[in-house]
Design brief:
The chain is α+β, with helices and mostly antiparallel strands. It has four helices and twelve strands, in the order E-E-E-E-H-E-E-H-H-H-E-E-E-E-E-E.
Length: 263
Amino acid sequence: MSSFHLRLAMIGVGVLGLGVFLLNKQLDAGEPNEICFSANITLLNVSAGSCLNGSNIRSMLNAPVLQRTGSPVPLKMTPPNSITSKTPIETCADYVKKVKQGWYSLSQRDMDRESVFSARCGLLTALARARTSRSSFVDGKKGLTDLDLLPSGLLPELNETRYSIAEAPPGRMVKGRSVADLVAAGECVIKQAMPGHLSLSTKTSDISISELARADFNGDGYEDMLVLVSTKLKGGTAGFSEVQGLTRRGPSGLLESFPVEIR
C-alpha cells in the first residue's frame, strides 16, 4: 500500500489549531492509498501517527462539523432565492452541495461559523484530490516569508494577480506586484512572519495566511502550496476565510494564486 507520509510542524494558528504538513517527495507520483500524519491536526481532529484513506475522508465529509466542545457548529444557510429562510447545515457533504447551489450565510454570526466549515471542508476536499508532485518550484526553501514571491492577488482586496492556471503556459513569468512591493509602497504592514504563517494589515483589513499543505492539488504535476487566508475587516466584526492554492511552474516569477474549489 502506497502512502503520503507527511512531516508536520505545528504552529497553533488561532482557534482552528492549524498545522503545516509537507509531502515526502521520495514517493512516486500518482494517487496515494493513504495520507499519513506525523503530528496532531486539530482542524481535522486527527492525531500523530494516524493515516487517512479515501474511505476515511468520505466519512469525515459526511460527519458533523464539531466545535471544540464536541457539539456541532450551528451553521444555518440561506437559499439563493430567499433573504429570510435558514436551514441548518451539519456536514461538509451538505455544505459543499449547498455552496455549489448558491446558498449563503445571511448573518455575520453564520459567516463566522461558515469560516470553520470553509477551512475544514476545503482542506478535506483538497486532500481527497492531492497527488505527489512530479516537479517543484516551491521547494522547502520557498514559503510565506518570501514576500518578494507572494502575489498581491493572495489578498482578497488586492486580487490584481489572480489567474486561471489553465490559461497560462508553463513557466510563465507572473506579472503584477508582490506583497513585498505592497510593503514598500506602504499599502500593507507585516505584523508577523514565520515559517508557515504570515499576518499583515492593510488600510481596511487584518489578514492572516497559514500554510496547510504541499502537494499537487490541481493535477498539473507541479507542487502547490495550500493556504488558508482569513480576513477581518477593521472597525467591525465582519470576517471570512477561504482556502487558496499557490503554485510556481518555473524558476522565475511570482507565485501564482488560484482558487481551491470546494467540491
